[in-house]
Amino acid sequence: FSLVKYFRTLANCFAILTYRPISIPDDPQYTSDDVTGVIPSLEGDSAELRETILSNLRNGISRIIIVTIHSNLEKAQRVAKEISSKIQVLSVEHPNKRNQMCEAIPHVTTKITIFADDDVIWPSTMLPWILAPFENPKVGGVGTSQRLKREDKPNFWNFLGAAYLLRRNWDIIACNKIDGGLPCLSGRTVAYRTEIIKNSEFMNEFRNEKWKQYILKADDDNFLTRWLLERGWEIRIQKHRECEVETTLEGNSKFLRQCMRWARSNWRSNLRSLRQGCIFWKHPWSTYAVFQTTLTSWSLPYDLTLAWLWWFVTLEMEPSSRLIARVVAYLWIFLFCRLVKYLEHFVRYPADLIYIPLIPFFGYFHSICIKAYAFFTLNVVSNIHLFFLLIFWIDLYRYG
């Protein structure tokens, strides 16, 4: 019973320990002159956007295209004029990340396109690393590892955000190492061969993907990942300190709203991936370790059942041995098996060790409340519903 769950943990540990990034070649085929950055931005001007642009420019990127909405076009143009002549500004009428991306794609003339969110900071050494896997002509998309930008006075919400990114890094690196698959190439920073996204069939399906009768505005990175995998393109993840990007997440109860959005995306995308028979045959480990867990991974009932079974297994043991066996097993079931994903973070920030109890508790809360609620509200297109009204009233009570 426990082997089903912990085999995945042990195999992923082995994959993480044996993972090596693709080295930068001595004479690279692609350089910064072959890269255009596309940044969809709602506001058109913010401190985060300016920092994102400057980090792109420090990498020597050939060109940057900012796509905002019509009402903020002038602000974005002012930013471009103040910072660099390398920046082109476009706009669409309504906020829609997919439409903003599609607005920029026809203007890309370089061989590689990098999509980036407007709150992501690149290290100055990133471009050579993210370009290195493209030396293989079969590679169509490349992602990097991510970490949360550290706040001056981090709170437990910041830790939960950092933990989310750590879990995500863990999953994508392990899956990519074992069978070349992965759950999703994050749109926070991801590189594609321009020839793939300039395809007219891609553009049409990307703009008009539906969930039932609803045209999806979100889930753009999930769509792009499935598009590559279903058409035989390879994907690579570069995990290295010199290409690790920083990002921001909500540092308050709004983080739960982000979790709800991600949970809905996971349900929709993973269910679609499971319906594609080729995913299992091409990427059996990714199917087992990630895609099918959307249906089967409900941690609290699973862990409670395992703890209950162990209680009965140890009934015939001597009292002192029984106590030790139960304590060790329960610590493993409820805590230690999860901690391995966060060791890197605790080495960097030992002060966050006080948040260790949050790891299992938030995992159970996410499984019971967020994941389950996301499944029953997959068709919700508004952010105002019962779950978030509850958060609103909690905040109102706390802060007046």
UniProtKB/TrEMBL annotation:
Q: Name one Pfam family in it.
A: Glyco_tranf_2_3
Question: Where found in the cell?
Answer: Membrane
What's a GO cellular component annotated to this UniProt protein?
A: membrane
Q: Provide the alphabetized UniProt keywords.
A: Glycoprotein, Glycosyltransferase, Membrane, Transferase, Transmembrane, Transmembrane helix
Spans through the membrane: 353-374, 380-397
Q: Which InterPro entries match?
A: Glycosyltrans_GT2/GT47, Nucleotide-diphossugar_trans
Q: Does the keyword Transferase apply?
A: yes
Q: Does Glycoprotein show up as a keyword for this record?
A: yes
- CDD domains (UniProt xref): GT2_HAS (cd06434)
Q: Name one GO molecular function term.
A: glycosyltransferase activity
Q: What protein does this entry describe?
A: Putative polysaccharide synthase Cps1
Q: Which organism is it from?
A: Microthyrium microscopicum
